[in-house]
């Protein structure tokens, strides 16, 4: 069985990154998981920032995510929260879910919130999405390129060229990933 990755709310917040991470989750390269609480976090943050979106729209997105990635929701992690230590107690639920879900990695942009010394006890690593996606690319470049292409072809309003999408990924901090994808831009 492929290794398990927990997606933190911060990587699900930006739509282009969420779309790519979910598309990658459908490849079978790894098992992507999260919790209902993680879903609530990114949805709540997005509703605060984007007044043009409605809870119903994002609930539809949530439902589509859960349908696209079978068995993505981790439950029963709550009793573990008290047993874990992190600099920010509000992040303990993510580590507890990673432990419960037997994850090898937490994909997060907030690496400072998941110090290695706190995760080592559980044999879990925190990775920035750029590192996570780049590792996937290094192991299975064709699957990652196909996933990026699928994401690009879904964009209709407005449509994007491969270069435009890579620029978006660059703005999201995926510098290593974009550098690798640049060499295959004609297939994206």
Can you summarize this structure?
This protein is an alpha/beta fold.
Any key phrases for this structure?
4 strands, single chain, globular, 10 helices, 53% helix, Rossmann fold
CATH architecture of the largest domain: 3-Layer(aba) Sandwich
What's the structural domain tally? 2
How many beta-strand runs? Answer: 4
Write down the Rg.
Answer: 16 Å
Please, how many helices? 10
Secondary-structure element pattern, one letter each: EHHEHHHEHEHHHH
Q: In which range does the helix fraction lie?
A: 40-55%
Q: Could you name the CATH class of the largest domain?
A: Alpha Beta
Low-confidence stretches: none
Spatial ordering of strands, largest sheet = 2-1-3-4
Major sheet summary line: 4 strands, parallel
What is the topology?
Elements: E1 4-7, H1 9-12, H2 15-25, E2 31-33, H3 36-49, H4 55-68, H5 92-100, E3 105-107, H6 116-119, E4 125-127, H7 129-139, H8 141-154, H9 162-171, H10 175-182
Parallel strand pairs: 1-2, 1-3, 3-4
Provide a descriptive summary of the structure in words.
With 188 residues, this protein is of the alpha/beta class. It has 2 domains: 4-128, 5'-nuclease (Rossmann fold), CATH 3.40.50; 133-187, no CATH class. The protein has 10 helices and 4 strands; from the N terminus they run βααβαααβαβαααα. Strands 2-1-3-4 form a 4-stranded parallel β-sheet. Helix 6 links the parallel strand 3 and strand 4 (125-127). It starts with a strand and ends in a 6-residue tail after the last helix.
């Amino acid at each position: 069985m492929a290794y398990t990755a927990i997606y933190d709310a911060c990587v699900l917040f930006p739509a282009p990154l969420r779309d790519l991470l979910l598309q990658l989750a459908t490849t079978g390269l790894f098992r992507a998981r999260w919790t209902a609480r993680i879903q609530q976090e990114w949805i709540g943050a997005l509703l605060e920032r984007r007044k043009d979106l409605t809870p119903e729209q994002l609930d539809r997105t949530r439902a589509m995510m859960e349908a696209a990635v079978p068995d993505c929701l981790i439950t029963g992690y709550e009793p573990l929260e008290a047993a874990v230590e992190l600099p920010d107690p509000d992040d303990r639920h993510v580590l507890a879910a990673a432990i419960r879900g037997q994850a090898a990695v937490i994909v997060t942009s907030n690496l400072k919130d998941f110090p290695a010394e706190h995760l080592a006890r559980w044999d879990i690593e925190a990775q920035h999405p750029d590192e996570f996606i780049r590792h996937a690319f290094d192991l299975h470049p064709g699957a990652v390129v196909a996933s990026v292409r699928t994401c690009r072809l879904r964009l209709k309003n407005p449509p994007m060229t491969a270069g435009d999408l890579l620029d978006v990924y660059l703005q999201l901090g995926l510098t290593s990933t974009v550098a690798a994808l640049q060499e295959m831009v004609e297939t994206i």
